[in-house]
Amino acid sequence: MTTHHSQHGVILIIVLWFIMIITILVITLANETRLSAKAVLANKQELQNWSNILTALRMAQMELFINKMPDPPGKETELPLAERRIKAYRFNGQVLKCAYPVPKNITIRIFDHLGKLNIQRLTKSQMQDLLAKQIGDDLEESGKLDDAWQDWIDRDDFKRANGAEKEFYEKLSPPYEPRNGMLETVEELLLINGFAKIFKDFNLDAIFTAYNSSSGINPNFATREALMLIPGLDESMINTILVRRRDQDFKSFQDLNDFIEPEQMAKIQPWFNFIPGGMVYTIAIQTNSTPTEAEGDNPNQTKQTTGNETDQTDAVPTTPEESPKTPQQAYMVTVQFQGFNRPPKTLMVNPYGILPDLSYESLPAEVDEQKKKISPSSTDNRTPSTPPDTNEPPAEENPGLPFQ
């Protein structure tokens, strides 16, 4: 009898162990299935995001074509010449409203390189002025940096008194040689002896360019970082420029006279130009939070913009989890316009580019009696050639949106 009960106990233990093993296998299989499903969904979202980025890139390039074209018949503005806006000034880094549809979770910005300092065209005195704004009146340090700069770009190996030539750079780890010519990239500036210390906390790509043919910058395109380096400009003046250009084009130095004193203006003039548009642009594309089906949004859905719709700049900052002062990443492509019979030439691709400082986008519009008051109709000549949708109510007036 005891043996019989012992057998029943052993069988019960075996059954329980069998059930436990089956349960573990089922749970493991379920977890693997769930993880596989998540991986498939993540891959699908990544492919969709990449597709959206490529679509946005093509639409941004199309916007460059449209910008170079005259307005279509029937779109001519009747505004006086003094009140007309230059549509190319949209390419100053503001969130761009495109004439053609772009994916709904995409933000596009275009930066004209006329808003950056050409590192290949800086004169000796200009470089000295840039360095003086960072190190002050330290003549000894300024002399070392200036000699190192001149030794890097000259075509010989003769070392200046405080400079650095081939012999110095070959002893570094890792060793390298000086260019002995004009810099070919912005990052090359950090290779010059002493310059890495001066510019270590700067977003150099937001300040300098090696592509445009201008020796100055246009304040309508200028990045905040580039303006901060200009001698004679302080933060208050820079904020005024960045805020006013939302609804006012700076067409000459006369437009700056009411908030820049003559002494500062004399320092600024060699650094500014008013060329209305260049040929080299950086397209910056950001993907916002992917819409979910629960929110009723389709990630493949695109929206056709019309002249009555509110500009995309309403969405600033573009990513809710980031404040305007937080450095923002974007997929950045630098292109050169080559005419209407060829696509823009790609000069550089940076998948992990850092956008310039956009904190000024959150600054309120100034209350200034001397500022020109632009009527709502004054922006008509900057509207895409898309017929308005009469079923939509008119967009609310927003002084911060120059392209409506």
Question: What do you see in this structure?
Answer:
The longest helix is centred in the first third of the chain and has 67 residues, at 2-68. The chain is 32% helix and 11% strand. α2 runs antiparallel to α3. It is extended. By secondary structure, the protein is α+β, with helices and mostly antiparallel strands. A hairpin with an 8-residue loop joins β8 and β9. The protein has one domain (1-116, 212-404).
Helix and strand string, N-terminal first?
HEEEEHHHHHEHHHEEEE
Contiguous low-pLDDT stretches (5 residues minimum) are 290-323, 367-404
Quick one: biggest sheet?
Answer: 5 strands, antiparallel
- What percentage of residues falls in helices of 4 or more residues? 25-40%
* Principal-axes shape call: extended
Spatial strand sequence of the major β-sheet: 1-3-6-8-9
Radius of gyration: 29 Å
List the helices and strands and how they pair.
Elements: H1 2-68, E1 92-95, E2 102-103, E3 106-112, E4 117-118, H2 124-135, H3 139-153, H4 166-169, H5 195-198, H6 204-207, E5 208-209, H7 224-229, H8 235-244, H9 262-268, E6 280-287, E7 302-303, E8 329-336, E9 345-354
Parallel strand pairs: 4-5
Antiparallel strand pairs: 1-3, 2-7, 3-6, 6-8, 8-9
Helix pairs in contact: 2-3
